[in-house]
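task queued by scheduler; priority normal; single chain, no ligands, no partner chains; default sampling; output format set to structure tokens
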Amino acid sequence: MQEVSLMARCLPVLTVLQLSHSPDLFRHTAKQIQHKQLLSAPNLRKLVLNHVGVRSIWQMRAVVLLPMLEELHLDNNGIERLVLFADDEKVAYQAFQQSRKTSDNTDSERCEWFPKVNTLSLAQNELSSWGSDSGLEEVITEAFPGLKRLFLTGNRMPNLSIGTDSSNITEDFKSDLASLDYAYLRPLELLCVNENITLTDTCTLDAVRILCPHLTTFRITYSTMFPQWNETLGRMYVVASLPTVTTLNRGQVRAKERLDSEIFYIQRGMAARQQKEQGQETGNAPQGTLHYPLLDVLREKHKDVITVIYREGETASHDGTMHMMLNVTLRCDGFEETKKRVPSSMTVGKLKALVRAVYSVAPSDQQLSFMSGDKGVVEPPTKLDNELQSLSFYGMCDGAVIFVLDTSLRR
């Protein structure tokens, strides 16, 4: 690490430095760390130490002073537990602290760490716990008190659960949670947990919503948590589950997308609730269904938008007794656009019958897909490829554009 200070001395305006794939960078032991070795890189703001064999946070701080450091990357270092001190470094730290107080007669407790660091990347390591076993709480609160952005991409983070019904959580309970092993999560504005194949339960999203009240940017891998859905539906569930998030997986969450996602969440939640009630009556409760803890909150929020219709004697609806009316646009090459108002519970099969009435295209010759209709978003069309499923199953929203491809013209 002395090389960092030497480079900073030769390059006084240096603000970003990467020293990756250097296994000998931390070859010194605690006994070799002496106060006289402390050098400084006063202008360095970003330091990348990927795959360098770092064992502790003190290894960096004991050799070089980085008073302005804002961003630190410790990717791919095989870290199973983040620690302040490794082996006998605690003794060296105490000696170092005492020598500083003796030399300048000041209390420099906070100066020994990285108070200005707001971004920490621990991607591609071996972390497997959110609590004390990972060391995140101890290290982040002590060494990085100003942390706002945490990258945990490509680790083995488990599902995070608060262990109670989130709909009944009080502010006092939230404070108690934050004061235990998860205080480091509360200030976060960005959290990346994508490529963690062990994150498989939506309870994690519920916990993130409660433990990270200031979160605005979030990254997650949809396919591990929603293997039964495509990415569009997975994204809609996550958007609805995290009300404060404005950027999800590098994509901006627009107002229309949030509205559509919350309506989708309500529809799926009502269907799941109805299925659960029916299962309890018959003694065959569904297993492994998704959770919808914000269902009642979002229903109240959108009570003026949603139309509830109780059907009798009809079994065509696959999304419960509840649906809303959608204003959609039909587009077919060679024909003028047609606007229709249809229920979200309409099946794709019935939609094909409607298309046949409008464009005289046989259902067997139709390939249907749709887009949200939001001109500010670039998105691939979602295929409507199951005639038994409803429009709400595919997350179709108000204002959607339905594309009709007449395959008979290709024969």
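post-processing summary
- The longest strand covers residues 325-332.
- The longest helix spans residues 255-282.
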